[in-house]
Specification:
Shape: extended
Structural class: mainly alpha
Order of helices and strands: EHHHE
Distance between the termini: 38 Å
Largest sheet: 2 strands, antiparallel
Radius of gyration: 16 Å
Number of strands: 2
Strand content: under 5%
Length: 81
């Protein structure tokens, strides 16, 4: 009898992300992440991104054409990929 999660029957895209949060600046995000139960961060982050209406439109020249995209890219400045 096999244990654990069954194998997926679809392709999977793995996104690795390291996020540095500053105490006093990012306290709301620190509280958000520390409140997530163990082994549930990925699912919680996916739900939060979907609830926030994460849509980014890209023009032909590769520039973002929405103000939301510009704010998002500013948030990515502190991330290490």
């Amino acid at each position: 009898m096999a244990t654990g999660r069954p194998k997926l029957d679809c392709l999977v895209e793995v996104i690795n992300l390291r996020l540095s949060l500053r105490v006093g600046v990012d306290d709301d995000l620190i509280e958000f992440f520390t409140g997530i139960p163990p082994r549930q961060k990925a699912g919680t982050v996916k739900a939060a991104l979907r609830a926030g209406g994460m849509t980014i439109e890209v023009e032909k020249d590769g520039k973002f054409n929405t103000s939301e995209a510009e704010m998002l890219m500013g948030a990515f400045d502190e991330m290490e990929w």
